[in-house]
Amino acid sequence: MICRQRCSFIDRNTQPLGTNLFYLPRYLPDGIYFILTRHPFKREKSGLLIEVPSQILDLSEYSEQNWDDVPSFIQHWQKMKQEGLSDVALKVLRVLTSASKGGMSASAIAQIIDEDEYEVEEVLENWLEFLVQQRIDTKTNYSFYHPSFRNWLAGRLNNGKIE
C-alpha cells in the first residue's frame, strides 16, 4: 500500500518536543518504507528523529525533467518574498542568480553588494530551504537548490518581474 500526504506548511514552533516533524515512528518494521521529499535543509534542523538507514537522492542531477517544476518555482518565489524584499534581499538575489554552481559565501556577497555581512546572513538564513550550502575550507557557500530555479529567478530579475 502506498500512502501519499502533502503538507503545505508545518510550524516547528508548535511541534511537541521529542516528536518527529511528521509524527513518524522512530523505528520501522522490516518492509516498511517512507519516501520524503523536501528542499535542502540543515540536518540538525530537520525535525526528523529516525534511526533507520536512509538514502538521499539529489534531484538537481535531473535538470531536464525538472523544468516541469515551474509551478513549484512560483510557489517558492511567493514564499521567499512573502514578507517583502528588502533592498539587501534584492541585492543578494541578484548576486545569487548570477553566481556559478559552487555559489558564494555570505562575506563575498556582502563585499560585492557593499552591505553588512550580518544582514546578508540573515537573508540567507530566511531562504535556507531554497539554498544549497557547500562547506569550502572555513566558509559556507550558498547557491540556489536547483540551477533551473536560479535561471528562472534570473529571468524574472532581467525582465523586471520582481513583484
Provide structural commentary.
The chain is mainly α. The protein has 6 helices and 3 strands; from the N terminus they run αααβααββα. It folds into 2 domains: 1-57, no CATH class; 63-158, Winged helix-like DNA-binding domain superfamily/Winged helix DNA-binding domain (Arc Repressor Mutant, subunit A), CATH 1.10.10. Strands 1-3-2 form a 3-stranded antiparallel sheet. The chain is globular and about 50 Å long. The termini are far apart.
Write out the strand line-up for the largest beta sheet, numbering strands in chain order: 1-3-2
- State the CATH class of the largest domain: Mainly Alpha
Number of helices: 6
Helix amount, in percent? 25-40%
SSE series: HHHEHHEEH
**Mean pLDDT over the residues:** 78
In CATH, the architecture of the largest domain is Orthogonal Bundle
Count of folded domains = 2
Largest sheet, strands/sense/barrel: 3 strands, antiparallel
* Sequence stretches where pLDDT stays below 50 over 5 or more residues: 1-8
Taking the alpha carbons of the first and last residues, their distance comes to: 43 Å
CATH superfamily of the largest domain: Winged helix-like DNA-binding domain superfamily/Winged helix DNA-binding domain
